[in-house]
Amino acid sequence: MDSQTLIAVVSIITAGFTIALGSIGPALAEGRALCEALRAIAQQPDESSTLIRILFVGLAMVESTAIYCFVVAMIVLFANPFWSPATGG
Amino acid sequence: MNLDTMSPDQVVYAQWGVVSINATLVYTWVTIALIALVVHLVTRKLVISGKRTRGQQFLEWAVESIREEIGQAMNRDPRPYLPFIAGLFLFIAVSNVLSVVPGYVSPTASLSTTAALALCVFLAVPVFGMTSIGIKRYLKSYFEPFWLMFPFNIIGELSRTLALAVRLFGNMMSAGKVAAILLAITPLLFPIIMNLFGLLTGLVQAYIFAILATVYIASAVNVTSKQVDRREEMTEQLG
Which of A58, B23, B124, B173 could form a disulfide with B8 if both were Cys (CB 3.0 to 4.6 A apart)? Predict the structure, then answer.
């Protein structure tokens, strides 16, 4: 297997693992955040608009890590600097 | 195959030297023209009292609810910030919702558009901060709570701008790609469901973008430093 094929194989596997492992943590954390927000809304329905807004902002913050992993996977797959067909083409 | 082939940036309609008209640009203009046309048609005959048209009712509801949200998020008068944030929200929401129209490619599915929108927010935060609380006090806030935090505050600002751009881009691009892939695999019912789900996430992402912009501006404008306040109190007392 020449080096270009090897780089392609490793890139594909790495991209898969990156996005798979990178989305576990944020998904669990967002589930926890949603659960606590629902409990808070059930306890104080009047404040629900504030709670929902804070929930969305918090979810966006927590999602950032998953997005970084997604970006790395995309770069490795589609803008790989070590794979010459990608940089040459 | 590189990052460009995943976005409407790749489809070029015309090119003069270094300037090229690609699909992102064309669909951005289409979105802007559509919003401007609809709003112009509605605001031609506005009535203050009496029977309003449905369009006026709808636009009034939209502006009122956005203003309400901004006011609650910022805890102050929302009117100076309304044009900017409502413009962000309307552009992103309309371009995301119109993505179900066949032949229309959402301009936010391209990293160029989302990066431009995130840059607008990145520039708007210091502008609003400086016009609200003064240049010196705003710049001093970068050294809060401890002067060593200055590089971390700067890095935080840059990273949240990047996160804004990539979050919107990732959501919109993946919705389009998932729909395209599903059309190749199970073309009957599932792509329609995924398209509708893409509508929902599009609206949620528009809301998140606008609310995050509001929260960033609020954190820049609501800056109160204990030292600055005490010095102001003392100067007031002395004279």
Answer: B23
Amino acid B2: pLDDT: 38
**CB within 8 Å: A49 and B1:** no
* Chain A residue with Cα closest to B174: A70
Q: What is the pTM of this model?
A: 0.82
Of the candidates B225, B232, B234, which has an alpha carbon nearest to the alpha carbon of residue B146? B225
Query: What is the Cα A75 distance to its own chain's centre?
Result: 14
| B166 touches A: beta carbon within 8 Å | yes
Structural Rg of chain B based on CA atoms: 22
Whether B31 has a pLDDT exceeding 90, the answer reads yes
**Count of CB contacts below 8 A, A vs B?**
45
Q: How many CB atoms lie within 10 A of CB A37?
A: 18
Amino acid residing at A18: T
Contacts of B170 in chain A (CB under 8 A): 67, 70-71
Q: How far is CA B132 from CA A83, B37, B77, B219, in A?
A: 50, 33, 12, 12
What DSSP character marks residue B17? T
Q: What is the DSSP track for A8-28? A: HHHHHHHHHHHHHHHTHHHHH
CB atoms within 10 A of CB B75: 10
Cβ within 8 Å of residue B175, ≥6 positions away: B99, B109, B194, B197, B198, B201, B202
Chain A residues with CB under 8 Å of B215 CB are 57
Q: Strand (E) positions, A1-89?
A: none
> pLDDT, tens digit, for every residue of B88-98?
999 999 999 99
Q: Which two tokens stand for residue A50?
A: 């504030």
Average pLDDT, chain A: 87
Domain edges within chain B:
3-238
